Amino acid sequence: MLEIKNLHVKLEDEDREILKGLSLTVPKGEVHAIMGPNGSGKSTLAYVLAGRDGYEVTDGDILWNGESIIEMEPDERAAKGVFLAFQYPMEIPGVAGLTFLRTALNAVRKQRGEEELTTPVFLKLAKEKGAKLNIDIDMLKRPVNVGFSGGEKKRSEILQMGLLEPTLCVLDETDSGLDIDALRIVSEGVNALRSPDRAFLVITHYQRLLNYIVPDKVHVLADGRIQKTGGKELALELEKSGYAEYTNKAA
Amino acid sequence: MNVAVMKTKAEQAISESFEAAAAKLPGNAAVKERRAQAIGAFSGLGLPHRRIEEWKYTDLRANLKDVLPAAVEDKTPLTIAELLVALGPLAHVDAHRIVFVNGHHRADLSDVSEAAGMSVSTMALALSTASDESVASLASTPEGGDAVEVLNTAFMTDGAIVDIAAGASVAKPLLMVFVRAGSEANTVTVRNLITAAEGSNATVIEANVVLPGAVRDAHLNTLTEVSVGKGATLNHVKAAVDEGRSLHLSNWDVKLAADANYRGFQFSSGLGFARHGTNVLYEGEGGKLDLSGAFLARNSEHVDTTLVVDHAVPHCESRELFKGVLDDHGRGVFQGKIIVRPDAQKTDGKQMAQALMLSEDAEFDSKPELEIYADDVVCGHGTTSAQLDEDLLFYCRSRGIPEKEARALMIESFIGEALDKVEHEGLREALASYAMQWLGRSPRG
């Protein structure tokens, strides 16, 4: 279970508070959506969960399975099952996708006390999981994300997620830059990973993604705090009425 | 005898070293005469220093204090097994092989018997049996050669002479191995000649390697003269891997005939103080050059890459991409001069030099020089120096890759773009393995 308790976060080199007492609980097996206007702190929340530098937690805590993760390094969190699918996945020229995936998978396995995978076993696994996302071996031999379309990049994120088998999946604006077909493939990939052992936090600006990845709960984030929580129908409401009500309230 | 005034102790010592070595250096009387002329020329030139523009960042005179005796003979025992250990990752490349230990050919370690389309012999033999006509081309310094090349003529002990037959396509690369072994600190001077005849296609590797446990102090002076014939393709890769204390002086002198395609690559790691100079001259239209490389330096290592690419004729193409990784007080120097002569219309040249700085104390001096005298050309150059990208580092770490490994992966990524220029897959992987060893990562199994 993910428990975010009264989380206050500011930028390290700026005195502006971005998250202002955010509290949220996501039990295992559930998919929660976070929706909110631009600048509400959605991406900050995603980065703080994954442990990016440059943010300072001034108050509150983040517990994953009862353990505080805010002092952990990003790779430690990954080993504990935290995964962030980036809004803008990075390109790594000169490093083949397979090399990157294998390095990451074996690093995580090592930290989890599992055996590293041999090349043939890894290749078989990568091919198998890739096929479900329309990612063939030639694409995996290319440098990570270099020259990939928006859809290819997002599919490659979901493949990483599928291989690393995280238990807390944070999807940051995964729908941005996707056409309908890509959105469907990516969503199918995500849905295939839904399980009673896994919690999902799906961050999005638009309701569209939630037609494909149907959430158990929807939270509205504005002005650094959860303003409202509801069922999946809340997303539809927001689509109609927009975020004005919440931004006004915040102002 | 020369009577020029010697400026430094080292310059004096070099001349004395020549007197001591001359009788034992290979070659007939005509060759000896040319060697004497060369050392005379050196006396006039002296060691290059920072007030000579081409050596501004690489002050050889200040850095060559103790002259090591010339390796005029060698009796160091070395087995095939030891050779393979010294070669490391390159041992896995299936290749014809000619081996030199401390600058002397070792037939027992070489195997070029089945190199169809390619004849491989040695410089020592050629110098001893040279006719009066061939002496002029063998025991000479390339036109415009500097003091280092002049010294090469004076002191060369051996090297490979490679002739690739017209029209021959040699499937397996030729690996020319220069091993340092034993406990004596020497100056090793090697001269290679590679001639790729019209329409041929081959890959030649020059490897400077060290047997583990060998003396760490060493001076090397290597000159490789390359001639690529009409329509011929030559891949020429140099890998110099050392332990941080050696002085490496190396030069490539390359001439390209019409429609020749020359792909040169220079990899180095752990060179104490190094200068790799390359001169390329286009002699016929339609020539293509790709000259690239990667250098890794840490502690107080110094690696200088200096190029002069002379577009003397029209319709030629040149590409250069050099990448350096500099840690601690490591210093990289890049000087890339592209000359486009007045007649060399339709020249297409692009150059890029990039350094990745891993420490605040690292230094990269980059000096691209374009001298363009023709008006219908496309030429560009660029140079960058940067630190590791923190966002990329976070991306890798968020995938569970620990910081040290993530940094190594990103350095691999940086060098990888240059290594991709090496078309031979096994060779490219061997160079990547050297880089990983330098990074302290075990090669991928």
Write structural notes for this entry.
The complex is a heterodimer of chains A (251) and B (445). Chain A has helices at residues 42-50, 74-79, 97-111, 119-131, 137-141, 150-164, 180-193, 209-212, 233-241, 244-250; strands spanning 2-11, 17-26, 31-35, 55-64, 67-68, 82-85, 92-96, 143-144, 168-172, 199-204, 217-222, 225-230. With 251 residues, chain A is α/β, with parallel strands linked by helices. Chain A has a six-stranded mixed β-sheet with strand order 6-9-10-3-11-12, sandwiched between helices. In chain A, helix 4 (119-131) packs across helix 6 (150-164) and helix 6 (150-164) runs parallel beside helix 7. The longest helix of chain A has 15 residues, at 97-111. Chain A starts with a strand and ends with a helix. Chain B is α/β, with parallel strands linked by helices and 445 residues long. Chain B contains ten helices and 19 strands. In chain B, the strands form two sheets. Chain B has a ten-stranded mixed β-sheet with strand order 2-1-5-7-9-11-13-15-17-19, with helices on one face. Chain B has a nine-stranded mixed β-sheet with strand order 3-4-6-8-10-12-14-16-18. Chain B starts with 8 loop residues before the first helix and ends in a 6-residue tail after the last helix. The mean pLDDT of chain B is 95. Chains A and B meet through helix 2, strand 7 and helix 3 of A and helix 8 and helix 9 of B.
Question: How does the SSE layout of this entry go?
Answer:
The complex is a heterodimer of chains A (251) and B (445).
Chain A: E1 2-11, E2 17-26, E3 31-35, H1 42-50, E4 55-64, E5 67-68, H2 74-79, E6 82-85, E7 92-96, H3 97-111, H4 119-131, H5 137-141, E8 143-144, H6 150-164, E9 168-172, H7 180-193, E10 199-204, H8 209-212, E11 217-222, E12 225-230, H9 233-241, H10 244-250
Chain B: H1 9-21, H2 29-45, H3 60-63, H4 80-87, E1 96-101, E2 104-105, E3 118-122, H5 123-129, H6 132-138, H7 147-155, E4 160-164, E5 174-180, E6 187-196, E7 201-210, E8 219-228, E9 233-241, E10 247-256, E11 261-269, E12 273-282, E13 288-297, E14 302-311, E15 317-326, E16 331-340, E17 348-357, E18 363-372, E19 378-386, H8 390-398, H9 403-419, H10 425-439
Parallel strand pairs in B: 1-5, 4-6, 5-7, 6-8, 7-9, 8-10, 9-11, 10-12, 11-13, 12-14, 13-15, 14-16, 15-17, 16-18, 17-19
Antiparallel strand pairs in B: 1-2, 3-4
